[in-house]
Design brief:
The chain has a domain of about 90 residues: Dna Ligase, domain 1, CATH 3.30.1490.110. Helix content is about 30%, strand content about 30%. The chain has eleven helices and 18 strands. The strands form five sheets. A five-stranded mixed beta sheet has the order 3-2-1-6-11, sandwiched between helices. The protein is globular.
Length: about 425
């Protein structure tokens, strides 16, 4: 399915997004409604009105992974409760972003015979269910199994095959998976808050949906989300989400570098990074002096000084390391040429002064800072790049990309008679 969203329901619905990050938990509660007739073809076919919003400092998480169940649960409860009070509604289930679990992106093809000589809905759904089953081998949880394109016999480039005639249906799929145990712990933490998990969404996909333009998604774009504990990469081409990756390095690493180098408290090192940090040092930076407290072990901390140019020297190596890893991961995916002119940076760490220019130099292509699109009722603070994933979760729901969820796939893979009776044999024969 392409970039333009489709209407999931003609009636109004309440959709809740829960962005579970290393440094913060964000909850967004929105009411949906179909776009007016005049709006059709001009963007999203679903309109959102944000009713409730809250974010709280995350505890009990490390690189997006649940590290302390009770602490993480308390943070989720706090964010959801505050958003519920603001919205005046009670949330039943949430769409959750994930960056942990060693995200893996994989593309593959599958095909199936058409005994009736035409494509029926069950043919498509069983094919997609088989794709999810194959992607989830080796005890991996399937976050996405997205059809990129269908083929009937020798005819390719088909987006909606149902009802068409042919002898064999094939599909190209992109799947994103994560370690099963990591996903089970995320779900357990959310369910302990008396919330259902409507979906688990790869955070790199959600972030990109919030910040890329329709033209970028069509022509090819790479989006890098600089989080506190992780940095993620996503690639969209022809409107399709075709690649995802993540590394366990983020803005917290820069904060730690500053704290260790200057012997400064971590909280103050974070403040130095946020208020004065830069990826480049300029001549004027040498004249701008910053005073900070040093950790000495004495009752009264001493005050030290550093100029902005010296601070940039501390910051730049870690930023270069992260960008170089992302550049290499993109090259290894074989998709670097597909996004030759479009690189979007988002997330809290993307606001570092000079980062787009440094990224452009290292990637050899233009780079820009991506802020999430505005939604009706969205507080001004939520328009910062820090909240891209949360807003993207709402937009992912509107797209309806995951046509077949893991919960419904078993209906199409149940045992019985016919050519789908032995799922294992079918997967071995068709993938």
């Amino acid at each position: 399915m392409g970039y333009t969203t489709t209407i999931r329901s003609k009636r109004q619905r309440i959709v809740t997004a829960l962005d579970v990050g290393t440094s913060k938990i964000c909850c967004l509660i929105a009411k949906t409604s179909p776009a007016p007739d005049w709006f059709e073809g001009k963007g999203d076919a679903v309109q959102f009105e944000v009713l409730g919003f809250d974010h709280t400092r995350a505890e009990g998480l490390k690189a997006g992974m649940i590290a302390h169940l009770d602490s993480a649960e308390a943070c989720i409860r706090s964010a959801v409760d505050a958003a519920e009070r603001m919205a005046g509604v009670t949330v039943e289930d949430v769409h959750v972003s994930v960056t942990c679990g060693r995200l893996k992106s994989e593309s593959f093809s599958a095909s199936v015979a058409l005994p009736s000589g035409a494509v029926r809905e069950d043919d498509v759904m069983r094919l997609l269910a088989g794709g999810r089953q194959y992607a989830g081998r080796d005890k991996r949880s399937v976050l996405h199994a997205l059809p990129l394109s269908y083929r009937i016999d020798e005819n390719g480039g088909i987006s909606e095959p149902q009802g068409m005639c042919g002898e064999r249906l094939a599909v190209d799929l992109h799947a994103v998976t994560a370690d099963e145990v990591a996903m089970r712990n995320v779900m357990l933490c959310v369910e302990r808050c008396h919330l259902g998990v409507a979906s688990l969404v790869a955070a790199p996909c959600a972030s990109a949906l919030a910040v890329m333009t329709p033209d970028e998604a069509k022509l090819g774009v790479a989006c890098i989300d600089f989080g506190a504990g992780t940095t993620t990469l996503s690639v969209f081409v022809d409107g399709h989400f075709i690649h995802a990756d993540a590394i366990a390095l983020g803005g917290n690493g820069i904060t730690t570098d500053i704290a260790r180098t200057l012997s400064a408290p971590l909280d103050y090192a974070e403040r130095l990074k946020t208020l004065h940090g830069s990826a480049f040092a300029t001549l004027s930076d040498e004249r701008e002096i910053i005073t900070y407290p040093a950790v000495t072990g004495m009752p009264q901390p001493s005050l030290n000084q550093i100029n902005k140019a010296q601070l940039a020297v501390i910051i730049r190596p870690r930023i270069e390391e992260i960008l170089d890893l992302m550049r290499r991961r993109l090259a290894e995916s074989g998709l670097a040429a597909e996004v030759a002119q479009h690189l979007v940076l988002t997330g809290g760490g993307s606001q570092l002064t000079g980062l787009p220019e440094l990224a452009a130099n290292m990637f050899g292509r233009p780079a820009r800072l991506g802020r999430p699109r505005s939604l009706s009722g969205l507080p001004a603070v939520a328009g910062a790049p820090d909240f891209s994933a949360g807003i993207g979760l709402l937009l992912h729901w509107a797209r309806g990309d995951d046509r077949l969820s893991g919960r419904s796939e078993q209906r199409f893979l149940r045992t019985g008679t016919g050519y789908f009776a032995k799922v294992g044999d079918w997967i071995r024969d068709n993938f």
